[in-house]
Amino acid sequence: MTNTDVFCFGNPNTKFYKVPKGIYHLKRVLKEVVSGVGDYGNKMGIPTVNGVIYFDDDYMTNPLIYCGSMRIVPKDKIKKKVNSGNLILIIGGKTGKDGIHGATFSSMLGARDLNLYKSVTDCGAGGLSSAVGELGEEIGCVSEVVM
């Protein structure tokens, strides 16, 4: 498994007086983003194999951060089929300042090879509503809290 990232920022050499009011200077934003992404990836133990930093003034007030993980998966494990009666589980442990360590969980226990799940998705920027919505897109889902 490997990580990749693309950072799109405004020009970090912009003079402080030219940065719009209410916006952090780009050097601070760049430092914090790199630190946050590094903290997350390092805690997961997944190497970052490539990355890009792109600077353009269009990103001064709205930087874009694209991060992803890649893994080679056997052909017989890539079916994404959700059936009525399947459970949606949120599993894992704390990683960095965010995340639930789900990728490491499934790798450590060999859950994929034991066919313990039918389909997986991530909880990226869309969070649980996006992930659950993706899994239940065709057949719907019902929420129950089990502790």
The portion of residues forming beta strands comes to: 15-25%
Radius of gyration: 19 Å
* Share of helical residues: 10-25%
Low-pLDDT stretches: none
What's the structural domain tally? 2
Q: How confident is the prediction overall: mean pLDDT?
A: 79
- What is the structural class? alpha+beta
Query: Strand arrangement, largest sheet?
Result: 2-1-3
Largest sheet: 3 strands, mixed
Order of helices and strands: EHEEHH
| Total of DSSP H or I helical runs spanning 4+ residues | 3
Topology, number of strands: 3
Large-scale geometry: elongated
Q: Termini distance?
A: 32 Å
Question: What this model shows, in words?
Answer:
The protein has helices spanning 26-44, 102-108, 127-135; strands at residues 2-9, 48-55, 64-70. By secondary structure, it is an alpha+beta fold. It has 2 domains: 2-69, 60s Ribosomal Protein L30, Chain: A (2-Layer Sandwich); 76-147, no CATH class. A 3-stranded mixed sheet has the order 2-1-3, with helices on one face. It is elongated, with a radius of gyration of 19 Å. The two termini are 32 Å apart. The model has no long low-confidence stretch (mean pLDDT 79).
